[in-house]
Amino acid sequence: MSVTAAFHVQRQGFTLDVKIELPATGISALYGASGSGKTTCLRAMAGLERLPNSFFQIGQDTWQDEANGIFVPPHQRQVGYVFQEASLFPHLDVAANLQFGMKRIAPVQRQVSESHIVELLGLSPLLKRSPSALSGGERQRVAIARALLTSPRLLLMDEPLSALDKGLKQEILPYLERLHRELAIPVVYVSHAADEVTRLADHLVLIDHGEIKAAGPIKQVLLDHQHAELFNDGASSVIEGRISRHLEHFASELKFGRFALRLSQQDHPVGQQLRCRVFASDVSVCLTQPHDTSISNIFPAKVSHVAEGRRPGEKLVTLDLGEEQQLLAQLSSHSVERLQIHPGHHVWAQVKSVAVL
Ligand SMILES: Nc1ncnc2c1ncn2[C@@H]1O[C@H](COP(=O)(O)OP(=O)(O)OP(=O)(O)O)[C@@H](O)[C@H]1O
Fold first, then answer.
1. Domain Mop: where (predicted)?
2. Residues lining ligand 1, CB < 6 A?
3. Is the entire prediction scored with pTM above 0.90?
4. What is this model's ipTM?
5. Is the dihedral of CA 235, 236, 237, 238 positive or negative?
6. Atom of ligand 1 nearest to the CA of 207
7. Distance between CA 312 and CA 310 in Å, rounded?
8. In this structure, which residue's CA is closest to atom 31 in ligand 1?
9. How close is the Cα of 228 to the center of ligand 1, in Å?
10. Torsion sign (Cα): 337, 341, 347, 349
11. How far apart are CA 290 and CA 287, in angstroms?
């Protein structure tokens, strides 16, 4: 099963013309600058907006096929929608707000239990509270739970964290990750925050001025130098692994493939899966194995690609660390020339710093 969309619309000064194919599980991020058409796509998926000549299918169910006169209205699409600001009923407590979501669906069609969702989003202590007595992050968790209790086939999230400050955002992210691990509902997550997307998404769709510029598994899309400038905080690669041990000097080790990455001490237990982001500007290259360096993370690598960087005089070098893992290094053209870095060259990659997501 997958999710297939073809949306078209012509508005004054804006044309949307996209074909999107998303996997049936996991979080797919729709990422792009303001005004690129993300919300329009999400609204069209929910049926809130009927775009001409458009098509939308989830698994075997066609919700829109204008060529054949099919358009399933929003209330008949099993879709959960979470907006930027949680719109809870102010006169109902949290439990009653959740019940509202639950009651929208007939008992035989319910795929999730209330107790599971309450536990998943950590809502037990909040059930008797009124929405006015919740923090922004708590309100958003209730809104997500309410959407999930309608047993949606698809969960649409439109910048769900953008109204929260950094602290609240950090508080809610682990819940979104759990949701992702424990539920099989596909999520389409709209955002223009690169950090959120790299942390949560499995699949990434880059949209720019109403057109899809790239789509695919996040690790692959991020590596494509052509799209580096669309990702607004710089070219980067993602490393995913498991905490293998905790080390002396307030450090932890993350195993990925046959490599181990030294990180600042992590609170997570051994075995915990973690995702890290390595900015290309934090990776340098040596021709011989460096021994007298302060940098701890040094890996043998093979150059697979050398491309122009974002600015003149800059190159973006793709390094293979085995078959599964690649790193991007941002180097000066001068260094690339001086060290004769070209595809096929065996080098050592030095990773200066790693952002644990
Ligand atoms: N109902 C509407 N009528 C006419 N134009 C619209 C309508 N809704 C959105 N637009 C325009 O369509 C374009 C795409 O808007 P959309 O909200 O989909 O972008 P976005 O990527 O979600 O932006 P943001 O991140 O700011 O929410 C914009 O130029 C916007 O002004």
1. 292-357
2. 11, 14, 32, 34-40, 192
3. no
4. 0.94
5. negative
6. 21
7. 7
8. 35
9. 24
10. positive
11. 9
Read out DSSP for 157-226? EESTTTTS-HHHHHHHHHHHHHHHHH----EEEEES-HHHHHHH-SEEEEEETTEEEEEEEHHHHHH-GG
Q: Which of 9, 10, 11 to mutate to test the pocket of ligand 1 (most atoms within 8 A of CB)?
A: 11
Residue 163 alpha carbon to ligand 1 centre in Å:
18
Sign of CA dihedral 328, 334, 335, 339: positive
**CB neighbours of residue 13 within 10 Å:** 6
| Residue type present at position 211 | E
Which pLDDT belongs to residue 133? 93
Q: Which segments in the chain show pLDDT lower than 50?
A: none
pLDDT of residue 106: 75
Tally of residues, the chain: 357
Residues forming a β-bridge with 8: 17
For the chain, first and last CA: distance in Å? 29
